[in-house]
Amino acid sequence: MRMHNPPHPGEFIREVYITPYGISVRKVAASLGVSLSTLNLLLNGESNISPEMALRYRRL
């Protein structure tokens, strides 16, 4: 059976939502109500997505 290695949530968010639409990371952070450093940690794969953050993304 082949194993599937899904991308990190931050990588997915960057590739599917931020890069294609040319949205600035700063603007996304402000829309989510989080600091730029918090969002960068997630996007760079250095932090996992919390349930609270998942709910915030749902509203975008």
TrEMBL record:
Example of a GO MF term: DNA binding
Domain HTH cro/C1-type: 20-57
Source organism of this protein record: Nitrosococcus halophilus (strain Nc4)
Coiled coil: none
SUPFAM superfamilies: lambda repressor-like DNA-binding domains
Transmembrane segments: none
Source taxon at top rank: Bacteria
UniProt protein name: Addiction module antidote protein, HigA family
